[in-house]
Amino acid sequence: MKDYLIRAINPNNRVRVMVARTTATVEEFRNTHGASATSTAAMGRLLTASAMIAAPMKNESDIATFIINGGGPIGRMVTVADSKGNVKGYCENPEADLPDRDGHLDVGGIVGTNGYLQVIQDLGLKEPYSGQVELVNGEIGMDFAQYFYTSEQIESVVSLGVLVDTDLTVKGSGGFIIQLMPDATEEDIVAVEKAVHKLEPVSSMISRGVTPEEIAEIMLAPLELTVLETTDIAYHCDCSLEKMERALISLGKRDLEEIIKEDGKAELVCQFCNSKHMFDEDKLRELMDIDSKEE
Question: How far apart are CA 84 and CA 134, in angstroms?
């Protein structure tokens, strides 16, 4: 089954809802990076949240970058997503793992709590918009809820989950975001509170084949939600030889000369998809010539 998300509202736009299935996307991350069970769960939650938050951006060229650094064993976590459902990510230590805590993968422990969540949105303006909050518990869902409240003054419920099988493959992954607008009624608030308390883990439902539409209906049937948009989600890296060449050119002639002198070649590895590109001495000198002409 393909990954996708839905965006829905109730009448008068008092409650906004997003629900996503990201099982294949997170499995692609795990397979690409050789991630442990706990690191997969942590990065899967971040990838899921990133896809949902980036989806409403207006322009195809808009990009959102999400960074979490909680001081835990996984290290710095980075994801990048766009409005078309493309998302990619990496972490410093994908093989880091921890014992289960209370029968669950210890996401908060692997992420850590001594740090921050940063969201950078490049919307084609002069300067990107950047917001940052301290981590609440490193479980990622509550950390994003805190971000929405602090940066956008929106009361939100954020639930994210990844179910990892015994063979380390991703059995189910997804999440939802429920946001109460300023004119939400008491009935809206009560309906959301009931939904949050009665719902089973979203990853468990997705692993059984429950769709995002069905999850939204199970949660918030009394609110008469209307689905506005459906967006496919995929793990997609847009790295290319051309981009890596530009990165080398940006080093400048002096640094390229040093690379040639010390190694005679350069190998660049994409952090998001682990693809490798080798540049021999002839190619490096060609790039040096381009740099000289641009000067």
Answer: 29
C-alpha pair distances (Å), 250 with each of 81, 203, 224, 237, 240: 24, 43, 53, 21, 16
Other Cβ atoms less than 10 A from the Cβ of 130: the count is 13
pLDDT at 295 over 70: no
With contact defined as beta carbons under 8 Å apart, do 47 and 94 qualify? no
Query: How crowded is residue 189: how many other Cβ atoms within 10 Å of its Cβ?
Result: 14
pLDDT exceeds 70 at position 82: yes
Angle between helices 253-262 and 281-294 (to 10 degrees): 170
| DSSP letter for each residue of the chain | --EEEEEEE-GGG-EEEEEEE-HHHHHHHHHHHT--HHHHHHHHHHHHHHHHHHTT-SSTT-EEEEEEE-SSTT--EEEEEETTSEEEEEES-TT-----BTTB--HHHHH-SSSEEEEEEE-SSSS-EEEEEE-SSSSSHHHHHHHHHHHH--EEEEEEEEEE-TTS-EEEEEEEEEEE-TT--HHHHHHHHHHHHHPPPHHHHHHTT--HHHHHHHHHGGG--EEEEEEEEEE-----HHHHHHHHHHH-HHHHHHHHHHTSEEEEE-TTT--EEEEEHHHHHHHHHHHHHH-
Residue reference for tokens 């969540």: 117
Is the sign of the CA dihedral 139, 141, 143, 146 positive or negative?
negative
pLDDT digits (tens, 9 = 90+) for 22-60: 999 999 999 999 999 999 999 999 999 999 999 999 888
CB 42 within 8 A of CB 107: yes
